[in-house]
Amino acid sequence: MDKRGPLNVTLGANLRAIRQSRGLSQQDFAHHLGYDRTYVASVERGQRNLTLDTVSDLADRLG
Description:
Blueprint: H1 6-21, H2 26-33, H3 37-44, H4 52-62
Helix pairs in contact: 2-3
């Protein structure tokens, strides 16, 4: 079953755009956020169904 809903894909694309605009690798970006690289990669691909708490946490860490 594909978990790639439109909101997940949009959030992932936006997260990737932020990472790329800062010139960071997934590894460095994940470290900055306090997450594992594989988790960040799956979020960027829209494969994670994030909770509102996780979205809020990411927003806080991104400033």
